[in-house]
């Protein structure tokens, strides 16, 4: 989008001269601001990761973006007004023991707008492929094929993953929002599996970039056959991971900062098929465990990854 505007190359040159004291001949080696390859081990420029561009390629003129924004402006104002009324009403729901709150119910094609799919084939990192749809019985179907064969591109040594993920929860004007699950103790799902194990991922909506990729994960064990199963997983069983790596130091899940839910099929080659009726949260007052894992402080000389 920005590269097509007049004077872009001149602006880029001026920007590089301000940020670098190198010679003019070294300006060709300065990366564009739209690339997100991190220069340090901590800084993250984009919530998608360092290997993805901040600004996707977009051929729309800037006037078209203004027109697109005007189309949703009235709807966002109405949503903001409803949020304001809800804030001053200050009447949060009260949940009792045994209550269930459905977060996602897959009974219509409209619910698919709240979800996105991903695989190594989509990201040009492998050959796994998947799809997420609503069948004729009004149930969500996550299906595809996992292929752990890595591509011969010299960059990726491992491959083989497919996943679905709910889009980030937002308020009016695309501001970040969170699910507050402090009143609940379990994640509940009604599924019909194929005997394969899946990973359930709960994404956190943290503020600082070092916590953008914090995620709590647990295994979903499915049974093969024609029968539905209701699975309840305590939040205390979910373990903290960062970019797919289990952390040595575990912390209880901050259930008031949940930003999304995902399901991943990986590691084992072959087809998979998972039907989903709903995803909900469940309250069990007899469950008082905060975390199922050891809570200890690592010595200062040991660096955890």
Automatic annotation (TrEMBL):
Keywords: Chaperone, Mitochondrion. One of its GO terms (biological process) is mitochondrial respiratory chain complex I assembly. It comes from the Eukaryota. InterPro entries: Galactose-bd-like_sf (IPR008979), NADH-UbQ_OxRdtase-assoc_prot30 (IPR013857), NDUFAF1 (IPR039131). GO terms for molecular function: unfolded protein binding. Residues 104-276 form the NADH:ubiquinone oxidoreductase intermediate-associated protein domain. GO terms for cellular component: mitochondrion. Pfam families: CIA30. It is found in: Mitochondrion. Belongs to the CIA30 family. This is Complex I intermediate-associated protein 30, mitochondrial. It comes from Araneus ventricosus (Orbweaver spider). The gene is CIA30.
